[in-house]
Amino acid sequence: MLLLLVGAALMLLSFPVDSRSRDRSPAVSGESPESQDKGEENGGPHTAGDAEIEHTSSSQEYEAVLEERIRNLLRNVEGVGEVDVMVVLKSSEEKVFRVDTSTSSSQTQEADSQGGTRTAQNSQVEESTALLGGASGQGSTPLLEKELKPEISGIVISAQGGGSSQVQSEISAAMEALFGLPAHKIKVLKRVD
Question: Where is this region: Disordered (predicted)?
């Protein structure tokens, strides 16, 4: 009996648990009303799910978070019904590190014995990655200037109300406004149950 309980406990512990999935709420913003109020007090309202997007570590996670946010948004739109969303990215996340640039230039004029002059110009540009951390480069890390999230290549949405041209145009207009995608990169389909 004890062996059976230990085995069951080990099986439960072996399953990975996504801590973010417990924090998500079915609301469009992905935040509880209390945290939304706190966000407004601390410098303005937060956009939907910004914290989740800032902490994604891979392109697949970023796609999944975007798909979930779109799904939650569209479920609350009249006439759309249940939806499935697929987001395709052009590339992966890009990190831009700070670069220190130093330039030096010198100009030399020479005159020869016959009255001619010669001017020599020398310029040098040196770039190095800015580092944070320990003295003399030990334990230092590059200074991250900004992180660029992947660009969206296209979106496909399958919605119960996708057979209606009005619903299709509303969904397309929403995706154009949210992501700046041209209409030909957004496809809305009628969902079959």
Answer: 19-62, 98-125
Helix ranges (DSSP H) in 17-142: 19-23, 33-41, 50-54, 59-75
Beta-strand relationship, 186-190 and 117-129:
unpaired
Q: What is the DSSP letter of 60?
A: H
What Å distances lie between residue 192 and 69, 87, 110, 162, CA to CA? Answer: 22, 19, 84, 10
CATH class of 57-93+149-193: alpha beta
Distances (CA, A) of 158 to 82, 163, 166: 8, 10, 15
With 0-12 / 13-18 / 19 or more C-beta atoms within 10 angstroms meaning exposed / middle / buried, residue 159 is buried
**Strand 141-142 versus strand 131-132 pairing type:** antiparallel
Could you tell me if 163 and 157 are in contact, meaning their C-beta atoms sit under 8 angstroms apart? no
First to last CA, the chain: 45
Give the separation between CA 153 and CA 186, rounded to whole angstroms. Answer: 9
The secondary structure element, H or E, covering residue 7 is: helix 2-14
Burial class of 143 by CB neighbour count within 10 A (0 to 12, 13 to 18, 19+):
middle
Residue ranges of the domains in the chain?
57-93+149-193, 96-144
Compute the distance between CA of residue 22 and CA of residue 16 in angstroms, rounded to an integer: 13
Confidence (pTM): 0.52
